C-alpha cells in the first residue's frame, strides 16, 4: 500500500460510519493532509457539506444541530484548547473527534472535562500525520525549516518543537504502514541522530504496545539523513517536468500558483498538478523538458481532432453524442490548457534567465572534475549580464562546494566578483554554506572522489558519455539507495539506534531527510521503485525544496546565528 | 493502517468527572443516551446550574436555553427539500432498473405485437424524466444568497444532489440512445429488408396473377397496411425518445453549472476553504461600506430636509412680516 491510499483509507473510514449530513473541521496542517489526497467531490459523496478551519469555526456562533461534526486535528495544545471551548457550548448535533497522532492522557482528560453536554460520540487516533504528495513521497510541511541548521543551544524550545513534529510524522508513517522499523541515521549529523534516537525511544519504549504488530516478517528500515549531506541537489536547475515546475514556478501541496506571473485567464490562475488525478501528468512527471514539449504537442493534436469532430453537429445523433462526451471534453480542455500554460511560462523563464547556459555549467560542476575549466566557466557566467543574481549565487556555491580545498585564491576571486556583481548578495552566505555542509561535515561521498571504486565508476561514466547534459546529475540519495539494496551501507557511517540490528535485506525503506527533499530525489526513488527490485523506498522530508526555498532557509539560519553571536 | 480508539478511556474520564462534579444529584441525574440529548440538556441546566464552570452564568444560561430550543425544534426547512430530492433520485434509480428490464424485453423477438412493452417503456421514461425535471426545479430553490455557514452548507448539498442528478440523467440518456440504436437496427436490419422484399414480391405477384386470386390479394394488402401502421408506430416512438433526449440535454446544461469538474482547482478542499474565507471577508467589507453609505445617505437627507424647512420658515416669516 502506498501513502496516498493509506491516507485516503483513513479519511474514508472516518466518514463512512457516520450517517447523515456532516461538517468536517480541520486545522491548518490537516487541511494539507486531506487536500492532497481527497477532493471536494469525494467529500460531497460522503455527505460532508461543510469544511471549516478550526479557528474560523470557533468564531461563529450559529447553531447547526442538524449537522454532525467530524474533527480531524493534530493533537496540539492550541487545538485542544479551542476544542475545549467549543465543547463547552456545542453547536453541532454530534461530535466525532479524530486526532492525527498519539494523544496524551492529560489531553483526553481536558476534553472529557469540558464535554459536560456529552456531545462527543467518539475519540480516535487515525495516524494520517503526513502530507502524501505522491505515492512514495511525503512531506511534513514544516514552516520554519531553517531550524535544523542552528546549533542546539541557540533556540532549544523551537528546536524541540521541530524535532517533535518530525518524530510525530515519522511514527505516523510507520503506524499507517503497521510496521516497527529498525532505525539508522547519518553519523555526522547531530539533528539526524537526535531524531533517530527520539523515534527509537517512542517506538521501542514509550509506545511499544502500539507499535507491536506481531509480524514475523523482516523489519523495515528507517534511515534519517541530513540535507546538508547533499547540498548540491537543491541548488541545481531541474529539467524534468515536476521538478522543473517546482524550481521555476513552485508547487505547494500539489498546487501551482500562477497569479504572480500575470496575464493568465482566471480559471488558470491556480492549477492542480497531482499524479493521482491527472493521467497526462502521471505519465510525464519524470520526463525531461524536451520530451514534455513533444508529448504536449501530441496531446494538443488529439484534442484538436476531438474539437473538430464536435464542431460539425448535423443530426440529432451527433448532438446526443456531443452531449454525452461533453463533460470529458471539458475536462480535457482544462487539462490541455493547463499544461500548455505551464510549459509556455517555463520556457519563457528559461529564455529570460539563460538557464540552458547556466545549467550546463551547473551540471559540469556537480558531476565532472576539472577545476581550471570550471573556474573559467563560472567567471564567464558571472560576467554575463543576462544571468540573474540567484543563478550567480548558486554557481559560486556549487563551485565552492566542489573545490573547497583546492585553490583558495580563486575561490576568493569568485567571492569578490559575486559581491561586486550582485547587489542583493549577503556577504558570508557561501562561507556559511561551507561551514554547514562542507566536506568535513558530510558523510556520503557526494562527488564520488573518496574511494577508488567511486572514482573508477565516475571515470567509466565519463568515457561512456552522457545522453543529456542537463540531466546527468544523480542525487547522492541514489547511491545511498543502491548501497541499501546491496546491503553495503556502512555501519560506521550509518549507525543503528539501540540494539535492533538489521538481519536481512529490508523490503520497505523509509528515508527521511531532515531539512527537506527535492523532486529530483523523489524522481529517482520512483524510478527505482518501478524497476521492481524487491525493495520499496519511501522518501520523506520536512519540506519540499527548490533552490529558492533552500537559499531562504540558509539565509534565515545565517541571520539568526549572526545576530545571536553579536548579541552575546 | 493502525488506529487506536480512545473513546472508552474518554468515557471513563467523563463519567468519573461527572460523578465528582455532582455527587449530591446522583439520584436525580437521568441516565443518558445520545438520542435523548435535548431532554438531558435542559434537565441538567435546570437541576444544577451551579456546576457550570467555564463561562459566566448569564451567557451560559442563554446559550443553553437557545441550544435546547434548537435541539427540540426541527432542522431548517431546506433539509426537507433536499430530502425530497434525494428520495426522488432514489425512486428514479429503481425506475431506471425497471426501464432497463423493459428495454431488454421489448428488444427481444416475441409473438405479440409488443404494444404492452412499448407502453410500459413510455410510461417509465416519462416518469423518470418527470422525476428528474421535478428534482431539478426543487434544486434551484435550494440555493441561498449570502456567505454564512448555512448558505455554504446549502450550496454544497445542492452540488452533491446536482452531481447525483446529472449522473442519473446521463445514465438515462445512454440507455435511451442504446435502445434507440437497437430499435433502428431492427427496423433497417433483417426486418426492413424482409419488408421491402415482401412489397416487391407482392407487386410482381400482383402483376402475374392479376385477377386470379382476389382473396389472397386482399390478405396481402391487409398485411401491408399492418406493416405500414407498424412503421408509423415505430416512427412515433423514435420521435418521442428523441424528444426526451433533448429535454434531458437541457436539464444537463442547467445542472452542469452546479457540478464540480473533477481534478480542477475548484475540486480542491483547501482552495474552497480559502475562497470561503476571502468571500466572507469581502462580504464583511461590503457590509461595512454599505453601512457607511447608508449613514451618509441618511445624513444628507436630513440636511436637505432641514435646509428646505429653513426656506419654508423663512418664507412664512416673510409672509408674516408682509401681511401683519
UniProtKB/TrEMBL annotation, chain A:
Gene Ontology terms: biological process: intracellular protein transport; regulation of vesicle fusion; vesicle-mediated transport
Record-annotated membrane-spanning stretches: none
One GO CC annotation: SNARE complex
Keywords linked to the UniProt accession: Membrane, Protein transport, Transport
Domain of life: Eukaryota
Location in or out of the cell: Endomembrane system
Family: Belongs to the STXBP/unc-18/SEC1 family.
Name of the protein this chain belongs to: Vacuolar protein sorting 45
Organism of derivation: Carnegiea gigantea
TrEMBL record, chain B:
Keyword Coiled coil: yes
Domain T-SNARE coiled-coil homology, residue spans: 228-290
Subcellular location: Golgi apparatus, trans-Golgi network membrane
One GO location term (cellular component): SNARE complex
Keywords: Coiled coil, Golgi apparatus, Membrane, Plant defense, Protein transport, Transmembrane, Transmembrane helix, Transport
UniProt protein name: t-SNARE coiled-coil homology domain-containing protein
Annotated InterPro entries: SNARE (IPR010989), Syntaxin (IPR045242), Syntaxin/epimorphin_CS (IPR006012), Syntaxin_N (IPR006011), T_SNARE_dom (IPR000727)
Entry keyword Flavoprotein: no
Record organism: Carnegiea gigantea
GO terms, biological process: chloroplast organization; defense response to fungus; Golgi organization; Golgi to plasma membrane protein transport; Golgi to vacuole transport; intracellular protein transport; salicylic acid mediated signaling pathway; trans-Golgi network membrane organization
TM annotation in the entry: 298-319
Any one GO molecular-function label of the UniProt entry: SNAP receptor activity
Gene3D superfamilies in the record: 1.20.58.70
Family affiliation: Belongs to the syntaxin family.
Recorded topology in the membrane: Single-pass type IV membrane protein
A Pfam entry, by short name: SNARE
Amino acid at each position: 500500500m502506498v501513502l496516498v491510499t493509506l491516507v485516503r483509507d483513513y479519511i474514508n473510514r472516518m466518514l463512512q460510519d457516520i450517517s447523515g449530513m456532516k461538517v468536517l473541521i480541520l486545522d491548518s496542517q490537516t487541511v494539507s493532509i486531506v487536500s492532497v489526497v481527497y477532493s471536494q467531490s469525494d467529500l460531497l459523496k460522503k455527505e460532508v457539506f461543510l469544511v471549516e478551519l478550526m479557528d474560523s469555526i470557533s468564531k461563529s456562533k450559529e447553531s447547526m444541530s442538524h449537522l454532525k461534526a467530524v474533527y480531524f486535528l493534530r493533537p496540539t495544545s492550541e487545538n485542544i484548547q479551542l476544542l475545549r471551548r467549543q465543547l463547552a457550548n456545542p453547536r453541532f448535533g454530534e461530535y466525532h473527534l479524530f486526532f492525527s497522532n498519539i494523544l496524551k492522557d492529560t489531553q483526553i482528560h481536558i476534553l472529557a472535562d469540558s464535554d459536560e453536554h456529552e456531545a462527543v460520540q467518539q475519540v480516535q487516533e487515525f495516524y494520517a500525520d503526513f502530507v502524501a504528495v505522491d505515492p512514495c513521497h511525503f512531506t511534513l510541511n514544516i514552516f520554519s525549516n531553517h531550524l535544523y541548521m542552528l546549533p542546539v543551544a541557540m533556540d532549544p524550545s523551537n528546536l524541540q518543537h521541530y524535532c517533535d513534529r518530525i518524530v510525530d510524522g515519522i511514527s505516523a508513517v510507520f503506524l499507517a504502514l503497521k510496521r516497527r522499523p529498525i532505525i539508522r541515521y547519518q553519523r555526522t549529523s547531530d539533528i539526524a541522530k537526535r531524531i533517530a534516537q527520539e523515534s527509537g525511544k517512542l517506538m521501542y519504549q514509550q509506545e511499544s504496545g502500539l507499535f507491536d504488530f506481531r509480524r514475523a516478517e523482516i523489519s523495515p528500515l528507517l534511515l534519517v539523513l541530513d540535507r546538508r549531506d547533499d547540498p548540491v541537489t537543491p541548488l541545481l536547475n531541474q529539467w524534468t517536468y515536476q521538478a522543473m515546475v517546482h524550481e521555476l514556478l513552485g508547487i505547494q501541496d500539489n498546487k501551482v500558483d500562477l497569479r504572480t506571473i500575470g496575464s493568465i485567464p482566471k480559471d488558470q490562475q491556480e492549477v492542480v498538478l497531482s499524479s493521482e488525478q491527472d493521467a497526462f501528468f502521471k505519465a510525464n512527471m519524470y520526463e525531461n523538458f524536451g520530451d514534455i514539449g513533444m508529448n504536449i504537442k501530441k496531446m494538443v493534436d488529439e484534442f484538436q481532432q476531438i474539437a473538430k469532430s464536435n464542431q460539425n453537429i448535423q443530426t440529432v445523433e451527433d448532438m446526443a453524442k456531443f452531449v454525452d462526451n461533453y463533460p470529458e471534453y471539458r475536462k480535457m480542455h482544462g487539462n490541455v490548457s493547463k499544461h500548455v500554460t505551464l510549459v509556455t511560462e517555463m520556457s519563457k523563464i528559461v529564455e529570460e534567465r539563460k538557464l540552458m547556459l547556466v545549467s550546463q555549467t551547473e551540471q559540469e560542476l556537480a558531476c565532472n572534475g576539472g577545476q581550471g575549466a570550471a573556474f573559467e566557466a563560472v567567471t564567464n557566467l558571472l560576467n554575463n549580464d543576462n544571468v540573474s543574481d540567484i543563478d550567480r549565487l548558486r554557481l559560486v556555491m556549487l563551485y565552492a562546494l566542489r573545490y573547497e580545498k583546492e585553490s583558495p585564491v580563486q575561490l576568493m576571486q569568485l567571492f569578490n566578483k559575486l559581491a561586486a556583481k550582485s547587489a542583493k548578495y549577503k556577504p558570508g552566505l557561501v562561507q556559511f554554506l561551507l561551514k554547514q555542509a562542507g566536506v568535513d561535515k558530510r558523510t556520503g561521498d557526494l562527488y564520488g572522489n573518496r574511494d577508488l571504486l567511486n572514482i573508477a565508476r565516475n571515470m567509466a561514466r565519463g568515457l561512456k558519455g552522457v545522453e543529456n547534459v542537463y540531466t546527468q546529475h544523480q542525487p547522492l540519495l541514489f547511491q545511498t539507495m543502491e548501497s541499501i539494496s546491496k546491503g553495503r551501507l556502512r555501519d560506521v557511517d550509518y549507525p543503528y539506534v539501540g540494539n535492533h540490528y538489521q538481519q536481512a535485506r529490508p523490503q520497505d525503506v523509509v528515508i527521511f531527510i531532515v531539512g527537506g527533499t527535492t523532486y529530483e530525489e523523489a524522481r529517482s526513488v520512483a524510478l527505482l521503485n518501478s524497476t521492481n527490485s524487491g525493495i520499496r523506498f519511501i522518501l520523506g522530508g520536512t519540506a519540499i525544496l527548490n533552490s529558492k526555498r533552500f537559499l531562504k532557509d540558509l539565509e534565515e539560519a545565517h541571520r539568526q546565528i549572526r545576530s545571536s553571536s553579536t548579541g552575546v | 493502517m493502525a488506529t487506536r480508539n480512545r473513546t472508552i478511556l474518554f468515557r471513563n474520564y467523563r463519567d468519573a468527572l461527572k460523578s465528582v462534579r455532582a455527587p449530591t444529584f446522583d439520584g436525580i441525574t437521568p441516565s443518558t443516551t445520545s438520542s435523548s440529548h435535548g431532554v438531558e440538556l435542559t434537565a441538567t441546566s435546570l437541576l444544577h446550574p451551579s456546576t457550570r464552570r467555564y463561562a459566566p452564568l448569564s451567557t451560559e444560561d442563554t446559550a443553553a436555553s437557545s441550544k435546547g430550543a434548537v435541539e427540540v425544534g426541527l432542522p431548517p426547512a431546506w433539509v426537507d427539500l433536499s430530502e425530497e430530492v434525494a428520495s426522488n433520485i432514489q425512486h428514479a434509480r429503481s425506475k431506471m432498473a425497471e426501464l432497463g428490464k423493459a428495454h431488454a424485453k421489448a428488444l427481444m423477438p416475441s409473438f405479440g405485437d409488443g404494444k404492452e412493452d412499448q407502453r410500459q417503456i413510455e410510461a417509465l421514461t416519462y416518469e423518470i424524466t418527470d422525476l428528474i425535471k421535478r428534482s431539478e426545479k426543487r434544486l434551484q430553490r435550494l440555493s441561498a444568497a449570502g456567505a454564512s455557514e448555512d448558505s455554504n452548507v446549502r450550496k454544497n448539498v445542492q452540488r452533491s444532489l446536482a452531481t447525483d442528478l446529472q449522473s442519473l440523467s446521463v445514465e438515462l440518456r445512454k440507455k435511451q440512445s442504446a435502445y434507440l440504436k437497437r430499435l433502428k437496427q431492427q427496423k433497417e436490419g433483417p426486418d426492413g429488408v424482409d419488408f421491402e422484399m415482401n412489397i416487391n414480391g407482392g407487386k410482381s405477384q400482383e402483376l402475374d396473377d392479376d385477377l386470379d386470386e382476389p382473396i389472397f390479394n386482399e390478405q396481402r394488402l391487409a398485411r401491408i397496411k399492418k406493416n405500414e401502421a407498424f412503421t408509423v408506430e415505430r416512427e412515433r416512438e423514435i420521435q418521442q425518445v428523441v424528444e426526451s433526449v433533448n429535454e434531458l440535454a437541457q436539464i444537463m446544461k442547467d445542472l452542469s453549472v452546479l457540478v464540480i469538474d473533477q481534478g480542477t482547482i475548484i475540486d480542491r478542499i483547501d482552495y474552497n476553504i480559502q475562497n470561503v474565507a476571502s468571500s466572507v471577508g469581502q462580504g464583511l467589507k461590503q457590509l461595512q461600506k454599505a453601512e457607511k453609505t447608508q449613514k451618509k445617505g441618511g445624513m444628507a437627507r436630513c440636511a436637505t430636509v432641514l435646509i428646505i424647512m429653513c426656506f419654508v420658515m423663512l418664507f412664512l416669516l416673510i409672509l408674516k412680516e408682509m401681511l401683519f
